[in-house]
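Consortium newsletter contribution from the modelling node. Members have asked for a concrete example of what our holo predictions look like. Here is one, prepared for the magnesium ion complex that several groups have been discussing at recent meetings.
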Amino acid sequence: MIELAKVAHGYGGGDLFAEVSLTLSPGAFFFLTGPSGAGKTTFLKLCYGELMPSRGDVNIFGSSLRRMSRDDIALARRRIGIVHQDCQFLDHLPVSENVALPLAVAGRTPQDVGADIGELLAWVGLAEQAAALPPSLSGGERQRAALARAIITAPDVILADEPTGNLDWEMSLRLLTLLVELNRMGKTVLIATHDLALIRTAKAQVPARVLRISGGNVQLAGADL
Amino acid sequence: MTLLLRLSSDTAADRVVPPSGYTARLTGFTAAAMAFLAVFAVALSLASGRLADRWQSSLAQTATIRISAPAEQMTAQTEAVLAVLRTTPGVASARVMDDAEQRALLEPWFGPDLPVEALPLPRLVEITEDSAGFDAAGLRMRLAGEAPGAVLDDHTRWREPLVAAADRLRMLGLTAVLVIAGATAAMITLAANASLAANAQVIRVLRLVGARDTYIARAFVRRFTRRALAGAAAGTAAGMLAIALLPEADAAGAFLTGLSFRGAGWLWPLTIPPLAAIVAFAATRAAAFRVLRGLM
Ligand SMILES: Nc1ncnc2c1ncn2[C@@H]1O[C@H](COP(=O)(O)OP(=O)(O)OP(=O)(O)O)[C@@H](O)[C@H]1O
Ligand SMILES: [Mg+2]
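And here is the predicted structure:
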């Protein structure tokens, strides 16, 4: 799926992390933790090719990121559902169209893939907001819309950056349940989060592994957490 | 053709870029103004081309030599003139006009019953030049020596510089059309760049959800092409109307009324809107891909 080989990355200054080798294989469930500013978002960006690593290489669905064309990267992203920390919507289009955007840019309609936008929005509790514009949504509503958009294409890999940062506990659990369900169907899931309670709850349901970024390393955390 | 088809089908893809009334109006206005000017440049080019052709053909390679001599010398001097012409470089052929032809030339002035034989009319020799032309001054000097009664009349030659000027005017008209096309491309590039910069976040989101560059570029290209086409159509219509409404002047204003389009010439300005659309298409596409390649 996605494979990092001796990846290092930094923005001009020192490396945020170095020598990171990791394979996100089909069906894997990962959490990524670490203090604010440690590089979690950076790590995810490397996984979907928004950043080119300073050193090392990332292999996405069998292709080396360094050798992928811009079109290759675009096509690979259609197989990755991403919940961005800052959501990233088109503010002039209603929520429903934003959620369907990954299909639209691929030249498909929800009917083509058997998706029902209304049902999906109802499921994340946004049935009322379907016609609203993203700037009018609350933080939690934005994150739920972002999740709906991330899964509409039934992607092979789901990368979520602080997806529960603005959600209440009940909604967080719903989101986790969905991701666990998708993972059981064979999808690869990686969630960057500070939320230790969420991690614990997840570990009770799936064999999730926890990666911790600290001191320039990305390491598997022990069972203690 | 594919361009038109792609333009006509309005899809959801166009909605991913937020509408911006300001650049839209500017682009439409620019295209309209440029098309308006282009109509006049085309009209100028066509009109001066017609003028050049007409003058060119009227001075086409003919001159006449008039021989006035006492009747008993007429034949001798005519022979002498023909002998000179035979050895003059640049003269393709020379021919003595017979009485019937002379009568035909004079008839409009003197009526059909003119007794040509009884009048002391000069004899006319018609010269046809070859493409190189002959040296009029040299020929005059030789005629003066061989046949004192012969006068070379090449009165149409004064038009030569006019033909050159008309030709130059035609080239200027065509150059103006090209300059207008270039200016249009430059202005649409600027507008497209402004629009791309204003929509950086939109482009970023589209890339993140897996849009290819062609998809993103198309959203911008369609919009600018359509605006340019509409603007140029309006400008062209206005320009053609202005030319159609030029007042009918009499002979004195022949050149001014000559600016109007003739017959099939009215079809030429109709090519302006599609050309403007093609220019906008190419300019926006180039600008979009240049910006997109700069992003990850
Ligand atoms: N585009 C950038 N240019 C320069 N520095 C950057 C850029 N993006 C991130 N950084 C820096 O890199 C570091 C890691 O940022 P990153 O967003 O990956 O952290 P994070 O672990 O996701 O933090 P948080 O938990 O607050 O979201 C930060 O110090 C940040 O300031
Ligand atoms: Mg982050």
